[in-house]
Amino acid sequence: MAVLYLTLLGGCGGMEESFPPEEPSVTGETEAATPTVERVEAPLASPVAANGKLQVVGNQIRNQNGVAVQLKGMSLFWSQWGGAFYNASVVNSLADNWKVTVVRAAMGVENGGYLTNPAAEKARVKTVVDAAIAKGLYVIIDWHDHNATAHTAQAKAFFTEMAQRYKNTPNVIFEIFNEPDNETWTQVRAYAVEIIGAIRATGAPNLVVVGTPTWSQDVDVAASNPITQYPNVAYTLHFYAGTHKQGLRDKAATALSKGIALFVTEFGTCGSSGNGNLNLAETQLWIDFMNSRKLSWANWALNDKAETASALVTGSSTTGNWPDSALTPSGAFIKQKLLQ
């Protein structure tokens, strides 16, 4: 069991992990009357004050003025294991000290996550989202699952509730399927159309990001048959620089040339296991690629697990304001890129 636990806690990009089956509990029912958060004025000079509602135009994500925008930030770790970092102090520190423009709340679904403890996981997500709104940051609500097509009903209920709550809030981005692993694009596309339909049915116009096959790497496949039923949809590209190199950049370039917008909602500076093989030179090549195409990104992960992908050393404060001594080599590199 210890070996399994450590495997599941690894990075997310391209791992061929085999999750044990889990009986979906009777969860995810929307509340009888989900309150809608009224739009609040973003703080002056904040990312949301400057850019407002995000919109996909062609192969770009643009701001309210039609100008291409590139968000840069951090992804939190799986919420059921990294939940100590799901607090306002962490969000504030990332905004003030790291100058992030986006934070990703990676809500774990299986393995003790949302399917087991829906109220606790939703509470963690709402804490991060509400803190991001208060700081004027963009925030990704991520259904952090490799088997989402097996949990369509729960995902639909969850995103219906979140969309009803945050439909007036331009800060919020919905990431509806983290990393499809063995699903075909036909399967993922059908799932995405159903979930996006539920989101749009609430009146929520928010940007939606759709996972792509093979741990969100086959963006070129998605680009050959994109979702056309609904507007404001981008597609997920994930990479781990120690594993995924020019070949994946070529796939991304192909997808962009076919006219879809990409969002790198997760990437690591190391191998796809989340550990070993720190490759900052290849990470810089990826950052140059993303900058040249204005691809938004979130680095995996703001967490203190003892692995290469973590931004913080083990035992770091869970309330932010980290000194340089608390940063791992990966964390120090990414913070530098955020401050540039």
Task: Walk me through this protein's architecture.
This protein has helices at 2-8, 47-51, 79-82, 88-97, 118-135, 152-166, 185-201, 213-216, 219-224, 246-257, 280-293, 329-339; strands spanning 55-57, 60-62, 72-76, 102-108, 138-144, 172-175, 208-210, 233-240, 262-268, 296-302. The chain is an alpha/beta fold and 340 residues long. It has a single domain, classed as TIM Barrel. The strands form 2 sheets. The chain has an 8-stranded parallel barrel, surrounded by 6 helices. Strands 1-2 form a two-stranded antiparallel ribbon. Helix 4 packs parallel to helix 5 and helix 6 (152-166) packs parallel to helix 7. The longest helix is centred in the middle third of the chain and has 18 residues, at 118-135. The chain starts with a helix and ends with a helix. The model is unreliable at 1-10 and 13-31 (pLDDT under 50).
Name of the CATH superfamily: Glycosidases
SS-derived structural category = alpha/beta
Any idea what the shape is?
globular
Could you name the CATH class?
Answer: Alpha Beta
- Which fold does the CATH topology refer to? TIM Barrel
User: What's the SSE pattern?
Assistant: HHEEEHHEHEHEHEHHEHEHEH
Please count the beta strands (DSSP E, at least 2 residues each). 10
Count of runs of 4 or more consecutive helical residues? 12
Question: What is the helix fraction of residues, given as a range?
Answer: 25-40%
Low-confidence sequence ranges: 1-10, 13-31
Number of domains: 1
Query: Termini separation (Å)?
Result: 43 Å
What is the averaged pLDDT score? 92
Largest sheet: 8 strands, parallel, barrel
Q: Which CATH architecture is right?
A: Alpha-Beta Barrel
The proportion of strand residues reads: 15-25%
**Gyration radius from CA atoms, angstroms:** 18 Å
* Widest β-sheet, arrangement of strands: 3-4-5-6-7-8-9-10
